[in-house]
Amino acid sequence: MGMNKYVAQRITKGFLIHMLLIIFAVTCLFPLFWMLRCALMTNETVFTDKSFIPQVINLGNFARAWTEGNFAVYFFNSLLYTTCVVAGIVLVSSLAAYSFSRLDFPGKNFFFYMFVAAMMIPLPGSFVPLYRLMTVLGLINTRIGYILCMINVGLSMSILLLKTFFDKMPSDLEDAARIDGCGRLGIWWHVALPLARPALAVIVIFNSLNVWNEYILATLLLNDKSLMPLQRGLMVFQGSHSVDYPLLMAGLTIAAIPIVVIYLAMQKHIVKGLSSGAIVG
Amino acid sequence: MNISNLSWPKLQDHLKNFSFVLPAVLIFSIFYIYPFFDIFRLSFHEWNGITPTMKYAGLQNFRELMQDTVWWQSMGHAAYITLIALTFQNVFAFALALACDREIRMKRFYRAVFFIPPVLSEVVVGFIWQWILYAGMQDGQHIGLLNYWLTKTGMPHLVNDWLSDPKTALTCIAVVHSWKGFGWGFIMLLAGLQTIDRQLYEAARVDGASSWKLFTDVTVPMMVPVMLVVVILTVLGSMQVFVLVLSMVGQGLGYHTEVPVTRILSAMTGTNRFGYACAMGVNFGVILIMVSVAFKWLSNRMKQA
Predict the structure, then answer these.
(1) Do A107 and A50 have their domain in common?
(2) Exposure winner among A159, B98, B227, B305, fewest CB in 10 A?
(3) C-alpha distances out from residue B239 to B75, B100, B178, B195, Å
(4) What domain count does chain A have?
């Protein structure tokens, strides 16, 4: 009898826990579902039809967003910025982190802690002097200007994470390569980088999310529609009087889907990155 | 180290080693360190962002800032959003992390789903919720999903113009911010829970401790360091929220949804007062540093206790 009561109690508890988790899971997914659903409707039905599955599925909004809405250009720009910035961060930060961890030069600690300190100090409004600097340098409204700024944004975190990784990594293989006559640049490229792949994956995924979703610098530094990434392009809809909602929802879907897919594919690296503490500081 | 004692090969060696960090140091110096000092310099000047010269204004910008009621109001708004994020968002994050920290089916599914809102951009999240909270009507029917459901489920008295009503707009932003953010806390707290040695639980259970006692005497004390990190990150993140505000309500109508960073932005792009915008940034940065130092101090006190 007592055993049965215990089992019943356990089942009820399990049921309640699952209920809580399911409610939250639905809360997380429903707004995305609603976005996708509205992207498949027409301007006539989107205001009145509230059924979950629309009677007529209309894929035309995506085509309209892609061409009329200029989303083909925004999408290409986002892709270009994300690729260039992430590649730049991987190269620059892994070179620096390798030197900080394995090589020696005067002032090494000073430079390393300079990067760490930047992560600790919140600097709201730093976009104001940055805007001024970019104007002075003539880099305003240029792709390269935006890319350089965004490389800088990801540097500190990436250097710290990679240095921590290199510090823990045994150096046997690098020593062997050195004895074989490999120079330090060769060792970095042929030995250290391939071994650091787990840490590089964390850096790639976090910086990709960050660049793809970045809004404020894209707004201040890029004025031409032909240079804007997705987040900036979407904001054109804010505050306009008659918003074409199905078109907006299609645009949001175009901006959201790649990031959700990449996230789902690289999930384990995100969990690892967040638990490793390097992101946390 | 005395440079003159260095032999030439040694110096060459150091130079080569330094060349590895040179690209990072260059980019960092130009795009972080220079603006870092420039923001202080600009905050002492009156400058419209266009003319090549700027006028030295001493402490005038800061003096004006002290009297700027909209600025301090915006600080209050950020504090309100932070308070809701700290309670609402983190309590749920912790409860869900506890629920997932056991042998439970579909654990990986839940974990994957809870982290979807944090990977979305604030622009996307803001627009989706703006559409759900939409207040207009057509053919006698509410367009926005929330108002529509409220009417359908017999609660028409709750129907509201959510994002225009000064009483509800800020709360809506805070709730959406929490919706977007709780996955971060969840993942970090769950990672923290999983580092707790299971033997501690076993030992306490053998001693006859109840589930509640297990929670208060084992789980909570072990989780204090992780919780403090989550709290500090929540505070710094929520105080500086602004893209969500821009995508949900935009800039304009009244001041009831202004937060510090939107104020900085409108001083810069709206009224072309770059010096004043920098003074705001410096003022806000100092406040944030003071808040995080206070939390660090508190956490050290708690560790000693």
Answers:
(1) no
(2) B305
(3) 8, 29, 13, 30
(4) 2
pLDDT surpasses 60 at A279: no
Predicted local confidence at residue A9, as pLDDT: 82
What values do phi and psi take at A158, rounded to 5? -70, -40
B191 with A260: Cβ contact below 8 A = no
Query: Max CA-CA distance within chain B?
Result: 87
Residue A127, domain member (yes or no): yes
- Say if residue A153 is in the same domain as residue A180: yes
Q: Which of A19, A261, A127, A186 is nearest to B96 (CA)?
A: A19
Same domain, yes or no: A129 and A214: yes
Are A92 and B123 a contacting pair at CB < 8 A?
Answer: no
CATH of the domain at A174: 1.10.3720.10
In a domain, A281, yes or no: no
- Domain of residue A29: give its range: 2-60
Structure tokens at B27: 């980019």
| Chain A residues closer than 8 Å to B240 by CB | 122, 124
**Residues contacting residue B272 through CB under 8 Å, at least 6 positions apart:** B48, B49, B50
Query: Mind telling me how many Å the CA of A243 is from chain B's nearest CA?
Result: 11
Give which of B103, B116, B137 to mutate to test A binding, by max A Cβ within 10 Å: B116
Instruction: Record the tokens describing residue B155, joined without a space.
Output: 């609660």
A212 and A249 within one domain: yes
Cα–Cα distance for residue pair A110/A31, rounded to 1 Å: 47
pLDDT higher than 90, residue B213:
no
Half-sphere exposure at residue B263, Cβ-oriented, CA atoms within 13 angstroms: 28
A51 and A78 belong to one structural domain: no
pLDDT tens for residues B173-194? 999 999 999 999 999 999 889 8
Is A124 within 8 Å of B260 when comparing Cβ atoms? yes
In a domain, A267, yes or no: yes
> Which residues neighbour A203 within 8 Å (Cβ) at sequence distance 6 or greater?
A89, A90, A93, A154, A157, A158, A161, A162
Co-location of A198 and A216 in the same domain: yes
What are the tokens at B190? 């769950």
Please measure the distance between the N-terminal and C-terminal CA atoms of chain A and give it in whole angstroms.
53
Domains of chain B: 67-304 (1.10.3720.10)
Task: Work out the minimum CA distance from B222 to partner chain A, whole angstroms.
Answer: 16
CB A195 within 8 A of CB A169: yes
